Give the backbone structure.
Amino acid sequence: MNNPVLSALIPVVILIALGFLAGRKGWIGGAGVKDLSGMVFVVLTPPLLFRTMSTVRVEQLDFRPIASYFIAVAVIFGATLAWKGFNRNGAVLALGNTFSNTVMIGIPLVGLAYGDAGLVVLFTLIAVHSLVMLTIATVVLEIALLREEAAAGRHSGRHIAHTALLALRNAVIHPVPLPIIAGLLFAQTGWVIPAVIDKPLQLMANAFGPLALLLVGATLAATKVGEQWRGALALTAVKNLVLPALVAAVGWALGLTGVPLAVMVLVAALPMGANVFLFSQRYKVAEERITAGIAVSTALGLVTLSLVMWVLSSRA
């Protein structure tokens, strides 16, 4: 299979479809999905991240791709707040329009499409992705909540600075950015991971991709879109198409080419990440719309990702 788009996407589609079938047939239920998801996230993800970054020198990293990504994210996030209003609903929808599923779908897809070189670019972004996005979302949501409470004559005694610091700490002490940082620090020592340790790390890293994609499909099988499909389509259009187009435009303006630009555009085109749902639950706003948005964004993501990857390959 010589077509790079098909060779990267077809395995992703097959594994998600198998996970969907398993969920629909009841071979794996809600509790099983939750337990497996926890294992993938906490047990299998850190070895992959640490092992990949353990050979990368800091001077090899290029931070321009990250700048292009977050400039585009800031524009979409700010435009959504301006359109929907500076409130909890607007903040959660802004996060939904900009927060990608970088781990469960992004890592397997980028690995298949661009190999280790693409993964290094991706992991450099992932190291700060949640840190930046979730901290900003927390601050905006807390400010919006305080304004709503003040308007209603209620005072919760909540301090924004304390909440922001807590969000910052939780974003760093986390199974995703922490092993990336640890692997990068290890690489600067010049040491090599002993074979007896590297082998199990490699086996766990290899297990991550297939299990993660099967879990995406099983989760989709249990998600109902219902009456929220119009709002879900609007979120999907912005997240899957508008954001990557803007990232590409900013990247070209900054002189980016090749794998770094392709990875940033592909990450921007990924479906909405599950963290958005957690925020909608925590702040009790737009829960049904975000749930539907994640499902539609993921299902249609197979089409929109094909389009984005085809455009990227045609310009290579």
Remarks:
- The chain has twelve helices and no strands.
- The CA atoms of residues 105 and 200 lie 23 Å apart.
